[in-house]
Amino acid sequence: QVQLVESGGGLVQDGDSLRLSCAASGRTFSSHAMGWFRQAPGKEREFVAAISWNGGSTYYADSVKGRFTISRDNAKNTVYLQMNSLKPEDTAVYYCAATTLAGWVGEGQSLMEVYDYWGQGTQVTVSS
Hints:
Layout: E1 3-7, E2 10-13, E3 18-25, E4 34-39, E5 46-51, E6 58-60, E7 68-73, E8 78-83, E9 92-98, E10 117-118, E11 122-127
């Protein structure tokens, strides 16, 4: 059974940093892209960042570019999201996602339908 388990969320203040982790189990995703999405209350789930199988390619939503960094450790089957300079508008449940598709589709990695597995989410709350 494939599981993606996010951790690292919490309550922080405007300008603080957090590092989210997503640990995969049940299969390895070391040959596949992974991504992070988020969903704020009353809003649709939106793309945040994606990373290719070896970390050589990344793609970010404009709203987080320059503040968030996605990375991965294939030996640990884990993907990370380093979030700096957090803003109240970053408040959301953050979800990790993994695809079984081969390769990297650039901007296409921002589409939810590209991903086959999802975590249960971790809450990030940024107070002003």
